[in-house]
Specification:
The protein is of the alpha/beta class and about 240 residues long. The chain is about 45% helix and about 20% strand. It has eight helices and eight strands, in the order H-H-H-E-E-E-E-E-H-E-H-H-E-H-E-H. A six-stranded mixed β-sheet has the order 7-6-1-2-3-8, with helices on both faces. A hairpin with a 4-residue loop joins strand 2 and strand 3. Helix 2 crosses helix 4.
């Protein structure tokens, strides 16, 4: 009996094939949705208005900066210095400060430095002194940045709150040089809790710092006095605003 070639024929495997196709589509949609969700969460942590407002409140007047220089017998350099505050926490939902660093990029001198601050170091906060860790726990990034700016006349231009794991990744990448940044960008972004910088801004700051000599093996420690008070004049000198 003649059968027309354009008449569809029953395929005993047709149902199985349809099920497989549906499953593949479902898996693809799930992967796509998970990826978009992860990227949305990562980018919501970047360009944070909350961090930007916290930094905007931590200003340094010329008068206060000159008073600090005069009291220390130092000179204001007038260099174009950009500072990035790295607040390191145990996890993304933690308010406990486990580490604190300042990356200083001196555009005038073409140098950069990574400075580590002890979290138990004391700074003036109003009429009393408080540790940097306690300031962060009580008042968050705004309180921390304001106290540092007021005490040392070093304003923080940008800030990054990172998990300890994210910070360790940053140091690992820093040891490999600036060329490793883009390869590790996604991993680095995953460790960020909040920052006023967007992804491009973060990579730009990191690349400039690394190209100017910042090294994971050469971190400078900010000094403290015998009473555990932060050496604010020493910090201003390390950053490059005082000489």
């Amino acid at each position: 009996m003649y059968e027309r070639p354009d008449v569809p024929k029953d395929n005993p495997n047709r149902n199985k094939i349809a099920v497989v196709v549906i499953m593949l589509v479902a898996v693809g949609l799930f992967v796509l949705g998970s990826t978009l969700w992860r990227l949305a969460n990562v980018h919501s942590a970047l360009g944070s208005g909350e961090v930007e407002r916290a930094l905007a409140a931590a200003t340094v007047s010329d008068e206060a900066a000159q008073q600090l220089a005069d009291a220390a017998g130092a000179t204001r350099t007038g260099d174009d210095v950009e500072c990035v505050l790295f607040a390191i926490v145990a996890s993304k939902d933690s308010s406990e400060l486990s580490g604190l660093c300042v990356a200083s990029i001196d555009g005038t001198q073409g140098t950069a430095r990574l400075i580590r601050l002890r979290t138990d170091a004391l700074v003036a906060a109003g009429d009393a002194s408080s540790s940097l860790a306690q300031l962060y726990a009580d008042k968050g990034l705004a309180g921390l940045a304001s106290a540092l700016a007021s005490a040392s006349s070093v304003p923080m231009d940008h800030a990054v709150i990172m998990t300890q794991e994210g910070w360790d990744t940053f140091l690992e990448v820093a040891a490999q040089g600036s060329s490793a940044l883009k390869r590790s960008a996604t991993k680095l972004m995953d460790g960020i809790v909040k920052s006023d910088l967007d992804a491009a801004g973060l990579l730009d700051v990191a690349q400039r710092a690394l190209s100017m000599g910042v090294s994971a093996d050469d971190i400078t420690d900010a000094g403290v006095a015998d009473d555990q008070t932060l050496d604010v004049v020493g910090l201003a000198r390390l950053v490059g605003v005082l000489a």
